[in-house]
Write a structure and sequence with these properties.
The chain is mainly α. It has nine helices and five strands, in the order βααααβααββααβα. The chain has one domain (2-185).
């Protein structure tokens, strides 16, 4: 099965795909810091820069969000999942929508898609994970789309691992919906 955001083999090489309440709390606390926000802002800028030069075509079909049907997986770190959920939940609050609920994640796992998929499109496009920003179905006219996507993902994943080490956040490499389930059911950061 193909993946964007990494491979199942990579997930198996790293720490067990579990997160304790302490791990989840640390991810959530770190996700709310300026340092982590700046890291992901710069990573998003890097992706946008490469995408502008490569010019892949997105047909906005939502196929990439239907994991089972499309035959792939997406992986994130626990910290990235906490960051994305924190940003989406904050945006949903502004729009008077509900934050991510564990039920949404479980329903998406049953359907085989992303819990943020709405009417065939990403309902949270502005705050999507790095892997979603890098992955394009279109491999380009030169047929090397998968190469630049993989190289860019590896570059940013290495930087993400370094971020975990620098801020002393537990590193877990998890399938997207598994990470969302942990973050959705885990302890919430108290408002400051």
């Amino acid at each position: 099965m193909a993946s964007h955001g990494g491979t199942e083999e990579k997930a198996a090489r790293y720490a067990p795909a579990v997160g304790s309440d302490a791990d989840i709390a640390r991810w959530r606390t770190a996700a709310a810091t300026e340092e982590v926000a700046e890291f992901f802002r710069l990573a998003r800028e890097r992706i946008a820069e490469v995408v502008r030069t490569k010019r892949p075509l997105c047909l906005a079909s939502g196929a990439c969000c239907r994991f089972e049907e499309y035959g792939h997986r997406m992986y994130v770190t626990g910290l990235e999942a906490a960051f994305v959920v924190e940003r989406i939940d904050r945006a949903r609050t502004v729009r008077a929508s509900n934050p991510l609920r564990l039920l949404e994640v479980h329903e998406s796992q049953s359907r085989g898609d992303c819990p943020y998929l709405r009417a065939g499109l990403c309902g949270e496009h502005e705050e999507r994970p790095l892997g979603c920003r890098i992955f394009f179905c279109d491999k380009g006219a030169d047929g090397h789309g998968a190469d630049w996507q993989s190289e860019l993902y590896e570059e940013l994943h290495t930087a993400t691992v370094t971020l975990h080490e620098r801020i002393v956040a537990p590193y877990r490499y998890l399938e997207w919906r598994e990470a969302l389930a942990l973050v959705a059911e885990g302890p919430r950061v108290q408002e400051r």
